[in-house]
């Protein structure tokens, strides 16, 4: 079974070892077939100590809690601040 992997930007770090990652998912409109950019907010487990604004790679894993089913596997870039 292949695991889904997304790249996104960290929006919030208010919880212990959990971050909110904003991911852009490309979709197509069902009638007009025009590409649409949809943004999803994923809760991910963070053991790397990332900060708000960092670009990370997240991977789908087993559920860690009721809402957390993603894991930060790689830090791609630091925040611009």
Automatic annotation (TrEMBL):
Transmembrane segments: none annotated. It comes from the Bacteria. Keywords: Ribonucleoprotein, Ribosomal protein. CDD domains: Ribosomal_uS17. GO terms for biological process: translation. Belongs to the universal ribosomal protein uS17 family. PANTHER family: 40S RIBOSOMAL PROTEIN S11 FAMILY MEMBER, SMALL RIBOSOMAL SUBUNIT PROTEIN US17M. This is Ribosomal protein S17. The lineage of its organism: Bacteria, Katanobacteria.
């Amino acid at each position: 079974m292949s695991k889904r992997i997304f790249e996104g930007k960290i929006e919030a770090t208010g919880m212990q070892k959990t971050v909110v990652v904003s991911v852009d998912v490309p979709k197509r409109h069902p009638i007009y077939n025009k590409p649409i950019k949809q943004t999803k907010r994923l809760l991910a487990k963070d053991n790397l100590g990332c900060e708000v604004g960092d670009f990370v790679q997240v991977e789908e894993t087993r559920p860690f809690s009721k809402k957390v089913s993603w894991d930060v596997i790689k830090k791609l870039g630091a925040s611009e601040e």
